[in-house]
Structures are given as C-alpha cells and as structure tokens.
Amino acid sequence: MASSVRKRTRRRKADDPYTDYILVGHDAAASEGPAARALSTFALYGRDDGVCTEYLLQREKREFVASAADRTAYLHELDEAWAARRDPKEARAIGAKAPIDEEAWAREREDVMLALLLHRETHDPAFCEALDRTGSCAILQKGRGEWGMAFVGGRAQGANAYGAVLEGVRASRITASFESG
What we know:
Blueprint: E1 21-24, H1 34-38, E2 44-45, E3 51-52, H2 53-60, H3 68-85, H4 88-96, H5 102-123, H6 125-133, E4 138-141, E5 150-152, E6 155-157, H7 161-180
Parallel strand pairs: 1-4
Antiparallel strand pairs: 2-3, 5-6
Helix pairs in contact: 2-4, 2-5, 3-4, 5-7
C-alpha cells in the first residue's frame, strides 16, 4: 500500500461499520492524503484540465429535461458558466436547479456516474493511480445525501452512492489487470 493513502483504522463509535476507509471529496482534509482529492468529482482532468466529472454529470442531466426549450436553456447556462470559469461548484449549483424528471434521474444516476468514471479512467492517469492506491478499503464520499456519507453524532448518514461506484470501478480495474496479467 502506498504511503500517500491514509486510512482510518479505528472505529469512531461502536455502531460505525467502517473500520478501514478513506474519505474522498474536493474538500477532503489533507490528512486523508492526495488520493482523497484526486478521486473527487471536482478534480479537473483532460487536455488543458478542460473537464471534470461533476460538470459532465450535470451535462448528462439534459437527457432528463422534458421540454426541448428547457433543455436548451439549461445546457446554454451550464456550458457558458463552464467555459467562463471552470468551476465545479457552479456546475453543481446549476444542475441542482435543472428541471429534470427526478424519479427517472434517481433510477439512472448511478449508471450515468459509472459511465463517466469509466471515461475518466481512460483519460486521467492521476485518477487511476489514486484509485489503485485505495487498496481494498471502503471509499466514502464526504457529504450527506444520496452521493455522500457523513458521520453525524457518531452515526453514518447518507447513501454513499459515489463511493460505491468508485469501488465498482476499482474492482473492474483489479479484474482487468488480473485477466491481462
């Protein structure tokens, strides 16, 4: 295991199910190591750091906007903001206002994220290295809600969907290297 990955090895509370994990996210503490930020959806990659997973995820929401006019307006606002500032937080904020079919998005979002991370895997060597360095520990996305996980009052809260998708990509990398090696 590379020394740049810091893992938690003590339980925070008796009911904390994670004994070996890394917290990832754009605002992850430096103590979590460089992999924590490299795995964030906010990490820029590609030619001239031109894209990030967060922006691409928000762009994919266009498929869930019913009205063609609303879809065009949404994409225009998102793409204009991205071209001007390359700010993942702004992309997320614009996406949060998108007039999407929430039920359809909830059914598809993890598959969309998986496709985006598989794309990133082929275009971002730093992402691959960071993912490989996590070893077999649980990957927890900082934050609450469906994508993240937070510890509140010693209890884990949130669905950690992003962490689960990252672990799936990591498992496919291990399988692929095993099969080719």
